[in-house]
């Protein structure tokens, strides 16, 4: 049986046809998508399209913050080019100040007059990647020039909600209360509100989202699950609210560590039940880092290079990224054994590929790395996974926004470019706040050899959503060599109009640089409508977005 015949047969026997008659299958198609317009999966929270910024390397200083007196165009010290680009992708939420940095951060160091702010040792001073830096640099000694006021201003200018990560390891629960008080107490009500007002911020910030510790199983304190549960309970009991609908996000597992989630939830729900309606998020971090093809679990030895890779490494990185689907399923099932009503949603507040150092654009950019088409596909398949699980994912923030692991932007001094990841967020922006739809994909797997043994990866996947008559379908073709001639059948409606855009490059290593900022860019993709079906050819190694207006 040839590949196309196999595909046709597999489609014809698919569950989707149990309730609607099959449409004829075009001989030349490689893939088919059944888009079930009347099968909503749930509302895709706009917050799923969030970003993460930490005081590490070049993220804040050089990336976001250039300073009010800089010659680099800025608004209130924030890099203007960054704000302009963020408005194109409608960034809904930004997480700050860490990451691991958060559990060593005293928020009081970053408020009050800039001239009198405390200079402190940055958490990342001990990181091996930081050892190459000049030891008096601001990546090593934190100036606190950028603090809570500046971050909230950055969020306002970006029209994003602030999401603050609380220091659970080295500050007290009372200091957490005071940070909430500083941010949210009404003008004139408390001494901390007066302090805020004295910096020009009279109106309360109204911060809703608070992460209670970061990676509390590791850099955030090396807690046991039981000890963390006890701290979480202490930190989140009777926090002053000032009428703000506070939401607390607990520090979830390392990758898919089910034991951590079991034991924290068992403590909070079964052994010493704790009913706090504000506990609504459970953080998950998933980095795709191990490209050793099963040879090692060592954090340094297992990593690959951001730009030097072969086709097997390409699939290896996508496979590692794709583990997010399993993680979401496992964690959700575990949480549901205790939190029966699923009050707590998953907050994937760090995700992306993580490579060895060497491709950062400036030595001060700790964890800075180049972003190629491979990373764009990893990001896109992750966002598609979130879209397909709208009831489970409350929020997500990509790690990290600029000059870091899975960056959307690279900046140094007056130079600034967008990476392929930015284009992915632009292509996917239409999913924000839309109703996710069921879409059945049928495409043969990609087959290849991994160290002499046959291996495979899925051939085409994506996600779909709908806002009124507008349907968005995003697609990832991981096949590094072959395009996918794809038929899209609309079940329960007809297309009046359709258009498509694609992020593709002849070379899967393609990336943007300061000298060649537009090597990877979005272009239009032909899409045709005939007999109620759409036809689009998705190029190899690409991400596509099809916009459909229903008749
Ligand atoms: O994103 C870089 C670091 O990775 C974060 O600070 C930490 O939370 C994670 O381990």
Number of strands: 26
Q: Indicate the percent of residues in helices.
A: 10-25%
What is the distance, rounded to the nearest whole angstrom, between the alpha carbons of the first and last residues?
38 Å
List low-confidence stretches: 1-22
Structural class: alpha/beta
Number of helices: 11
Ions, cofactors and other ligands present here are: alpha-L-arabinofuranose
| Neighbour order of strands in the largest sheet | 23-22-26-20-19-16-1-21-25-24
Radius of gyration: 24 Å
- Share of residues in strands: 25-35%
Task: Report the major sheet.
Answer: 10 strands, mixed
Q: How would you state the average pLDDT, rounded?
A: 94
**Shape from CA axes?**
globular
Describe the structure.
The protein is of the alpha/beta class and 551 residues long. 23% of the residues lie in helices and 27% in strands. A hairpin with a 2-residue loop joins strand 19 and strand 20. The model is unreliable at 1-22 (pLDDT under 50). Bound molecules: alpha-L-arabinofuranose (AHR). Alpha-L-arabinofuranose binds at residues 54, 98-100, 214-215, 350, 367, 399-400, 405.
Strand and helix layout:
Elements: H1 3-12, E1 31-43, E2 50-52, E3 74-75, E4 78-79, H2 80-89, E5 93-96, E6 120-121, E7 141-142, H3 148-158, E8 161-166, H4 173-184, H5 191-198, E9 209-212, H6 225-236, E10 247-250, H7 258-271, E11 279-288, H8 311-322, H9 324-336, E12 345-353, H10 373-388, E13 393-399, E14 409-412, E15 415-418, H11 420-428, E16 435-443, E17 446-450, E18 453-457, E19 461-467, E20 470-477, E21 484-491, E22 495-503, E23 522-525, E24 527-530, E25 533-538, E26 542-550
Parallel strand pairs: 1-21, 2-5, 2-13, 5-8, 8-9, 9-10, 10-11, 11-12, 12-13
Antiparallel strand pairs: 1-16, 3-4, 6-7, 14-15, 16-19, 17-18, 19-20, 20-26, 21-25, 22-23, 22-26, 24-25
The chain binds alpha-L-arabinofuranose.
């Amino acid at each position: 049986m040839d590949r196309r015949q196999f595909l046709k047969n597999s489609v014809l026997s698919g569950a989707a046809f149990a309730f609607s008659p099959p449409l004829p299958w075009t001989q030349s198609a490689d893939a088919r998508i059944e888009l079930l317009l009347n099968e909503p999966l749930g509302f895709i929270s706009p917050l799923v399209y969030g970003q993460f910024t930490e005081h590490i390397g070049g993220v804040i200083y050089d990336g976001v913050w250039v300073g009010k007196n800089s010659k680099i165009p800025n608004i209130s010290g924030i890099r203007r080019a960054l704000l302009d680009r963020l408005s194109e992708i409608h960034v809904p939420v930004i997480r700050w100040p860490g990451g691991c940095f958060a559990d060593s951060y005293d928020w009081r160091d970053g408020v009050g007059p800039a001239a009198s702010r405390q200079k402190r040792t940055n958490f990342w001073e001990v990181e091996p990647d930081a050892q190459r830096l000049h030891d008096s640099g601001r990546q090593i000694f934190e100036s606190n020039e950028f603090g809570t006021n500046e971050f909230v201003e950055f969020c306002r200018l970006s029209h994003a909600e602030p999401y603050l990560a609380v220091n659970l390891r080295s500050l007290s629960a009372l200091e957490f209360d005071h940070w909430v008080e500083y941010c949210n107490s009404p003008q004139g009500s408390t001494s901390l509100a007066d302090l805020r007002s004295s910096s020009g911020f009279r109106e309360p910030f109204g911060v809703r989202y608070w992460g209670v510790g970061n990676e509390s199983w590791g850099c955030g304190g090396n807690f046991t699950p039981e000890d963390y549960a006890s701290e979480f309970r202490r930190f989140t009991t009777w926090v002053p609210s000032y009428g703000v609908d506070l939401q607390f996000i607990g520090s979830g597992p390392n990758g898919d560590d089910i034991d951590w989630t079991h034991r924290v939830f068992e403590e909070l729900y079964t052994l010493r039940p704790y009913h706090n309606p504000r506990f609504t998020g459970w953080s998950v971090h998933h980095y795709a880092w191990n490209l050793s093809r099963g040879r090692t679990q060592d954090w340094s030895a297992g990593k690959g290079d951001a730009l030097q890779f072969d086709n097997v490494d390409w699939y290896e990185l996508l496979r590692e990224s794709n583990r997010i689907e399993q993680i979401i399923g496992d964690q959700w099932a575990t949480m549901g054994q205790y939190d029966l009503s699923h009050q707590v949603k998953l907050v994937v507040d760090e995700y992306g590929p993580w490579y060895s150092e060497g491709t950062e654009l400036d030595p001060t950019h700790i964890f800075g790395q180049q972003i190629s088409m491979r990373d764009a596909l990893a990001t896109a398949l992750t966002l598609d996974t979130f879209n397909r699980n709208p009831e489970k994912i409350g929020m997500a923030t990509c790690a990290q926004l600029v000059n870091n692991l899975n960056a959307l932007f690279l900046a140094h001094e007056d130079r600034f470019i967008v990476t392929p990841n930015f284009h992915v967020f632009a292509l996917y922006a239409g999913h924000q706040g839309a109703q996710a739809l069921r879409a059945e994909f049928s495409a043969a797997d990609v087959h290849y050899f991994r160290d002499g043994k046959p291996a495979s990866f899925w051939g085409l996947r994506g996600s779909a959503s709908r806002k009124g008559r507008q349907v968005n379908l995003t697609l990832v073709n991981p096949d590094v060599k072959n395009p996918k001639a794809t038929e899209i059948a609309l079940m329960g409606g007809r297309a009046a109009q359709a258009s498509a855009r694609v992020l593709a490059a002849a070379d899967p290593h393609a990336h943007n640089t300061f000298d060649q900022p537009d090597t990877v860019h979005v272009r239009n993709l032909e899409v045709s409508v005939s007999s109620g079906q759409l036809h689009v050819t998705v190029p190899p190694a690409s991400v596509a977005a099809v916009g459909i207006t229903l008749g």
